[in-house]
Please model this.
Amino acid sequence: MECPRCGFQQADTLECGRCGIVFRKWQARDDVPAGAAVPAPVPSAARAAGVALPGPPPPSSAGARAAKPPWFPIPRPAVRDAASSLARLLHAGLGLPEALRTLATGAGPRLRGCLVAMGTDLEGGASLADAASRHPELFDASALQALRAAERTGSLPQALEALAARLDSSLEVRRQLLRSALYPLGVLATSIVLGPIPELVTGSAGAYAAKVLGNLALVAGLAFVAAVVVPRVLRTTSLGTTLRRAAWRLPWPASVYRHAVRATFCRAFADHLEAGLPLYDALQAAADVTVDPFAADAATSAAAMLEQGSALAVSLGASGFVPAGDLMVLIAGERAGTMVEALRGLATTYGDRLARGVRGLLRAFGVLMTIVIFAWVAVGIIEAFTQVSQGSEDIFRMIEKEMPYEFK
Model:
């Protein structure tokens, strides 16, 4: 049989081995009359009442129950390599279950278990996004939304490549962050070892070791809280949603987060429109990919204004999601019929702003770390000097007490 999307010739199967579309879903999409009106998205209250909404389907209940973020997810480099390799296998013509089994043979133990379980779920009729949602240590919420939209449009390999590129970009930021902290951390390690040296004079080797180990435990505890506990709290509580909303009203460095959300939204919106999703569906799916509450509200508001006859640029600008200075790019694209190109141009612009913001944030982080650690060292020096002075005074008093009266 021939794939209706990419023309790939293959044996009778449920999905295309090259582009990943599910034939039944693609046929249902093509059965929509060309002149049929596309309904506007229904508010969340209607969704709660059971009204069917356009756009990517919600995750299955099983996936939703298992979506509790783990304490220690699978390392991001392994996930990046898996996404990139899966995209290559799909481009080569392998079906999804077979591609997952192929990847599992060379994966680590945790990743292998996830891939095998996902392949089993796919053979049982689940979509890739629903199968992946049962393994939150593999993909985050934003990646799952992107996979759902890609499965609907038949652009799964492209979505996996974009996911791998996003993970690679985040890993590069993490490497830059570690490089920025290298010098301050070196100063901190030196101060931890050298700061308690007066304990060897006024106390004992045991007191010195206890001081060093106590400082190391404090630093390790703070690092664990910053790297593991805080991200988990932000993902699993309402605090994360509150901070995301607040980021749209706060100055720098919150602007770095806004650039990231806008770049993700514009890129996803362009991909969905280019893949053939109706405007309302593409708008809502792009907002879902950002996993940002303000973007979701802006998409709902824009859909309502579009239903009333407003232009897309005006609808997105009314909520403040797109700054006034960038609206003319959307207006020109809408008038010229090149909205996809306009959105990609905006995504590139926001991506450049994001890169500059990240560089500034890294410099500020390095300066702040240096100030904090040097303050730590200064406090340690003052404390050590105080201990040595006190110890010297005690020794002089002892000597004076033991001296004969005539020498006093």
In short: The first helix runs from residue 23 to 30. Confidence is low (pLDDT under 50) at residues 32-66. Residues 129 and 144 are 6 Å apart (CA to CA).
